[in-house]
Design brief:
It is a single chain. The chain is an alpha+beta fold. It has four domains: about 200 residues, no CATH class; about 60 residues; about 70 residues, no CATH class; about 150 residues, 2-Layer Sandwich (Heat Shock Protein 90), CATH 3.30.565. About 50% of the residues lie in helices and about 15% in strands. It contains 14 helices and 15 strands. The strands form five sheets. A five-stranded mixed β-sheet has the order 10-12-13-15-14. It has a four-stranded antiparallel β-sheet with strand order 2-1-8-3. Helix 8 packs antiparallel against helix 9. The radius of gyration is 49 Å and the shape is elongated.
Amino acid sequence: MRPSGRVPLHRSIFGRLLATSLLIAVAATAATAWLAVQSTSRAIQQQQGRSLADDKSVYDMLIAYAATHRDWSGVQQSVQDRAAAIGRRITLTDEDREVLADSGGSASLAAVRASATVDPLRLDQALTGSTERIDARAVGPYRLPPGERAQLLRSAQERLDCLRVRDIDGRVADDPSGRPTVQLTGPDLQGLAGVCRAKTVMLTATEARALDELTTLVTQCLGLSPWTKLVIDRDFAVEHVSVAPADRSRDLSTPRTQQCIQDARVRQLRPYVASAALLFITDPQSPADEPVFRMSRANGLRIAGVTGAVLLTTMVLTVLVGRRLVRPLRALTEAAAQPVERAARMPVTRDDEVGYLARALNDLAERREQAEAQRRRMVGDIAHELRNPLTNIQGWLEAAQDGVAQDPATVLELLHDETAVLRRIVEDLGDLAAADAGRLRLHREPVYLRELVTQVGESHESVAARAGLTVTSEVRGDPVAEADPVRLRQIVGNLVSNAIRYTPAGGTVTVMAAESGGEVVVVVADSGIGIAADDLPRIFDRFWRADVSRTRATGGSGLGLPIARELAEAHGGTLTAQSRPGHGTSVTLRLPVSP
């Protein structure tokens, strides 16, 4: 029955394309709006990120200045330079909002919140990203005079020379107090850096005095007796404690001790750094916050109008494009609906999906013609294969009816042989039909190849002996396959029968089995006539014969190898062949190993 030319709109390609396009348009509009919002948000975040980076750069600059100066008297030029670089107004005031430095601007800062408090002894950890509360550049009484620095420099140079003798790279660098230290610039592969550590001077007189002062402040903070001695190292940690009897109940490892050290450092360094100041980073024109953007009614109507125009345009374009796309599809449908005997090739006039469809339909028609031709040849081959034994059976029966037949026992034996040929052909055809229909059932179980190969060889010994051949078996190890034992025996038996059929008298047929690379490999090799290179790819085709007359004379139906390959593939294996004319043929079966 030919399909109708009219299809309901909701089921047609045109209707589906229209609905899909509308959905795409709506999704695209929503996605565009979402992307606009995301882009705006991202731009705001980037702007905020840049502002935060600017704030941090200004804060770092002022902290560095405060840590190395006793007051803010010389910071004005640095503030102006930084303000010009970032395009913002920078104002620095004391805690009473008296201006200490200002890059310029007339707007009042009375109602503006400070961006940060600049104090090198109370760092803003949100801006520094560190857990330290005291800036390392605030060294105060720990700064070394030139004489002590020269002495430490000689000591550091001696240690560096010691390291270089041991093939350890390093360099001399000053810490914020001016103390030269040796820093390794390469790996210490043998752990020899500690050998040279003794050449470093531990404390100078300046450092010792400063640490003694700090120790006194810490002792007072903790309320310890004068007889309790603390030793604080250059890293401001308690290195040693000599506890007086009155203080033995005190635990000096508590957080209070660390807090006292922190507070003592602040008291000790305060005279050497600038006082705490408030930092304001604002817009040069107005320090107040910018007004929040609100969409006006006109803007809302404009967006709605643009959205409607996009939808309408999409609908019109979809109708036009849909009609253009459906027209060649209708032509292909009419051509494909023609009867088989009147079928013609589809016109390929486009290089798009429709053109691909036309080529696919043409390819399908060609394959259908090839399949039809193959079906006809197969029917002819089947008829021919059945005709020979049926003709023989009919001839012997007629001879028996006419009384001209030979000995009845001979006639029965001949009839039995021809019936066996018929049965083998019918069984082979049944196996192929079951494989084609997907009804080939396998009953898998572990199959020991040594036993199977031996059984197949013994079952073919009589046939091989009548043909003047020798059948041998070679099994390496004890390979086991997960297979249907009956079907596996059928595969190997077909291969051995085929090898015997094409091996002349005096030849040999060898069945080999082994496990290799996670597979069970069975090879059936013969010393027969071999197969030409042009014919080798076709030996697994059904009813194919390299020499029709000779094959039929040997009793082959042309189905043994195709059935063997179908059974091998049903097991998840492969069946391949190699051959050279005059040197025999070997067929290799590969199956998965039993788990």
